[in-house]
Amino acid sequence: MVSNDDGIKVFHLDLPARREDIAKLELGSAVYLNGVVYTAREGIYKKVLDEGLPLPVDLRSISNVNFHCSPAAAPDGRGGYNVGAVTATASFRFSKWIPRWLERTDCRILIGKGGMPADDYKKVLAPGGAIYLTTVGYGTGALLGRGIKRVREVHWLDELGIAQAMWLFDVENFGPFIVESDLDGNSLFAQHAETINAGIEKLYAGLKPPALHRYGETDNRKDEVM
């Protein structure tokens, strides 16, 4: 672990990640990964968890890091693929599958965009010895792509398409990612949400209600999904 010029702690993890190394990660710190990272999202979850199909590869022996993303992959003309960038997707949409996925694969690190419900960290990820890493805002897809050195394997590509297939990437200095949850189930976003929301309420105080024109729209922030 080192600290950069901004005082942010930076960690480099060799994969598969060991529990003792995961335990050292602190909320808000930056993480870079070295080893094998795989992708699995709703298409894979439905096949393996809902339909009962066997995993196409023994993930337990290869990697314990699952990246919720869509890779910009293209054939390299030599039977393989080049990945110029990866676009993270929102993980909260996959919440219902995560408990079974952790048990089935021994996944210990989930990566995605925007985090998951705070209760999932306390009730699912932490008891399963897993944490969540989030991407650093928008526009970092090409930066992350630089960390992908090789497509090791790809499964169910023809059936599911590029975004939903299971990709296995050999990665080096893959990141940066931000630690959103830790092994105690604490959430960086949740810790700051109350402060941020209080500021938003003050910002809108005294303003007239917005003009709503579409069915189902509301100005009640308690009705928001995100």
List the helices and strands and how they pair.
Blueprint: E1 2-3, E2 9-14, H1 19-22, E3 30-39, H2 42-50, H3 59-62, E4 65-67, E5 69-75, E6 81-88, H4 98-105, E7 109-112, H5 118-125, E8 131-135, H6 141-145, E9 148-155, H7 157-160, E10 166-179, H8 188-204
Parallel strand pairs: 2-3, 3-4, 4-7, 7-8
Antiparallel strand pairs: 1-2, 3-10, 5-6, 8-10, 9-10
Pfam families: Fumerase_C (PF05683)
Protein name: Fumarate hydratase C-terminal domain-containing protein
Keywords: Lyase
The CATH architecture classification is: Alpha-Beta Barrel
- If strands are numbered along the chain, what order do they take across the biggest sheet? 3-4-7-8-10
Averaged pLDDT, please? Answer: 89
Number of helices, counting only DSSP H or I runs of 4 residues or more: 8
> Number of DSSP strands?
10
EC number: 4.2.1.32
Enzyme class: lyase
GO molecular function: L(+)-tartrate dehydratase activity
Family: Belongs to the class-I fumarase family.
